[in-house]
Amino acid sequence: MPGLYLLAILASIAGVGLLARRFLPGVLSPRLARPVLAVLLAFLAFDWIGASRGWFATNTDWVVAYWPPGIPPEEPLLLAFLALFSVVLFEAFRRRGRRDA
């Protein structure tokens, strides 16, 4: 099922985006691109080093393809999702704490 992992990541990105747009207006803005890009580049560098040294392995049954040294194209999407989800979750807790105080 090579496309299932990719589909799950895309559905997760869409779901978090819809929830953030509905319940946290203003979070999804062009300003969000900088932290997501910074996290993406840092973790992709770590993945690149880990894959080239053999620390990480790619199961070819679950990914669409993989780029040498073994990073699947789903990896940047997953890392971008994790950064997006972290920012949205942080903002949700920050706004809730401000509202409760």
Quick recap:
With 101 residues, the chain is an all-alpha fold. It has helices spanning 2-23, 33-52, 74-100.
Topology:
Elements: H1 2-23, H2 33-52, H3 74-100
Helix pairs in contact: 1-3, 2-3
Structure write-up:
The protein is mostly helical and 101 residues long. It has one domain (2-100). It has helices at 2-23, 33-52, 74-100. The termini are far apart.
Number of strands: 0
Low-confidence stretches at least 5 residues in length (pLDDT < 50)?
none
Q: How far do the termini sit from each other? A: 48 Å
Relative helix content: 55-70%
Measured by DSSP, the beta-strand proportion falls in under 5%
Given the structure, what is the number of helices? 3
Largest sheet: none
The structural domain count equals 1
Structural class: mainly alpha
Q: SSE string, helix = H, strand = E?
A: HHH
What's the average pLDDT?
Answer: 88
The radius of gyration computed from the alpha-carbon positions, rounded to a whole number of angstroms, is: 16 Å
Backbone shape: elongated
